[in-house]
Write a structure and sequence with these properties.
The structure is a single chain. By secondary structure, the protein is of the alpha/beta class. The chain folds into three domains: 3-54, no CATH class; 59-191, Leucine Dehydrogenase, chain A, domain 1 (Rossmann fold), CATH 3.40.50.10860; 209-371, Rossmann fold, CATH 3.40.50. 49% of the residues lie in helices and 15% in strands. The protein has 18 helices and twelve strands. A seven-stranded mixed sheet has the order 9-8-7-6-10-11-12, sandwiched between helices. The protein has a five-stranded mixed sheet with strand order 1-2-4-3-5. β11 (341-343), α14 and β12 (364-366) form a beta-alpha-beta unit. α6 (103-120) crosses α16 (373-387), α6 (103-120) packs across α18 and α17 (394-420) packs across α18 (426-444). The structure holds glutamic acid. Residues 92-94, 166, 168, 196, 347, 375-376, 379 line the site of glutamic acid.
């Protein structure tokens, strides 16, 4: 069978065995579409069933999460952990608490995580988990009881050498704290490295909170540098207003750019003077309110519930909200307004049609598995510190993160040039570089 027939057969079989999981199919298709040149050079990967094995998670866990709300009513959610691939290290990837979470979403995220984690160069495999729990409007006590119930089941599958979750949408330092406490209580082990994203002061790493947003901006900065440009004086649009978006805004401003718009699920805000970071943090992180509250406190800014944040003209777009948030029409609008670079801070925020439009227009496009790898890379730095019972300074940790992002960027370009002849093809470069590292390890470890 030739390379493309082999890849097509694996994709058809993956779709057949995983029906009604469109995001998972999309994530698999995006990687497989890059792999033709790899299988032409390395037919041995077809002989050892690398792709067939990569597309089937090593283990998939689905469990009931019962908890009692503040009114005394019993609630039931569904918890997930997909332990996708452990060729490079313990399963590593976040937990997402959001009503949209289902098995297909967790599988798409876990699949992406395999290649992202490989690109970081660290010893971490790929996994992902979460629950269809909606934290919005829940009290602190409810969040704690939910996290405790979730961990009561999940703890038996975790371990610092086995599976190491972290945060994702809906899971931050508070939730990681409750999850860690329950793990410690059940196992009677202070196993610092079993979770990352812990608060600084009891095992957490400096820069972990900021890392995904900072990393995405570093990646965009590297892309711009290939054109002899920097962020200085550029207009930037960031979607979302969660942890990734907030720290992307901070780093853009530090590099001399101006973020003029950001969003949440209720709409978007425009602030031509540049987003006031302290106010945004106050609204989203302390008061946990909608972004319209930002505009109430800042008369020059405006809020819109209609249209999308991508209607705002900009030089750089950083989608930092969620999957498939930036579609074909958004991409057309961005290109029309002269966007120069797009770096994905979220996981798979651009639809395949949008990505195609950027590529056709010659817009520099950094796919999430490369551009947002800074978060998980810093989780791996947290694991290193925990293993050594050490704690590094903010500056030391940020220096490591910046070096990792430079290396991820360079790997993408070098690999894209080698396998496709165009160093600007970051999609090809990220997929192939990530795949090769995992495939080599899987080959060496035999058919397992
Ligand atoms: N959820 C983050 C991601 O999408 C971080 C995962 C981690 O730190 O393990 O990469």
């Amino acid at each position: 069978m030739n390379a493309s027939a082999h890849i097509e057969a694996v994709f058809a079989e993956t779709r057949r065995r995983n029906p009604a999981e469109p995001e998972f199919h999309q994530a698999v298709a995006e990687v497989l579409e890059s792999l033709g040149p790899v299988f032409e050079r390395h037919p041995e990967y077809a002989d050892t069933g690398i792709l067939e094995r990569l597309c089937e998670p090593e283990r998939q866990l689905i469990f009931r999460v019962p908890w009692v709300d503040d009114g005394g009513a019993v609630r039931v959610n569904r918890g997930f952990r997909v332990e996708f691939n452990s060729a490079l290290g313990p399963y590593k990837g976040g937990l997402r608490f959001h009503p949209s979470v289902n098995l297909g979403i967790v599988k798409f995220l876990g699949f992406e995580q395999i290649f992202k984690n490989a690109l970081t160069g660290m010893a971490i495999g790929g996994g992902k988990g979460g629950a269809d729990f909606d934290p919005k409007g829940r009290s602190d006590g409810e969040i704690m009881r939910f996290c405790q119930s979730f961990m009561t089941e999940l703890h038996r599958y975790l371990g610092e050498h086995t599976d190491v979750p972290a945060g994702d949408i809906g899971v931050g330092g508070r939730e990681i704290g409750y999850l860690f406490g329950q793990y410690k209580r059940i196992t009677n082990r202070y196993e610092s490295g079993v979770l990352t994203g812990k608060p600084v002061g009891w095992g957490g790493s400096h820069v972990r909170t900021e890392a995904t947003g900072y990393g995405a901006v570093y990646f965009a900065h590297e892309m711009l540098a290939t054109r002899g440009e920097g962020f200085d004086g550029l207009r930037v649009v960031v979607s979302g207003s969660g942890n990734v978006a907030v720290y992307a805004v901070e780093k853009v401003h530090a590099l001399g750019g101006r973020v003029v718009a950001c969003s949440d699920s209720s709409g978007y805000l425009v602030d031509e003077d540049g987003i006031d970071l302290e106010l945004l943090k106050e609204v989203k992180e302390v008061r946990r309110e909608r972004i319209s509250a930002y505009t109430e406190a800042r008369p020059g800014a405006s809020f819109s519930a209609r249209g999308t944040v991508y209607d705002v003209p900009c030089d750089i777009a950083l989608p930092c909200a969620t999957q498939n948030e930036l579609d074909r029409e958004d991409a057309v609008a961005l290109v029309k307004h002269g966007v120069r670079a797009v770096a994905e801070g979220a996981n798979m925020p651009c639809t395949p049609a949008a990505v195609q439009i950027f590529r056709d227009a010659g817009v520099l496009f950094g796919p999430g598995k490369a551009a947002n790898a800074g978060g998980v890379a810093t989780s791996a730095l947290e694991m290193q510190q925990n293993a050594a019972r050490d704690s590094w300074t903010f500056e030391q940790t940020e220096t490591r993160l910046a070096a990792i992002m430079r290396d991820v960027h360079a790997q993408c370009r070098d690999t894209a040039a080698t396998y496709g002849g165009n160093a600007d093809d970051y999609v090809l470069g990220a997929n192939v570089a990530g795949f090769l590292r995992v495939a080599r390890a899987m080959t060496a470890q035999g058919v397992i």
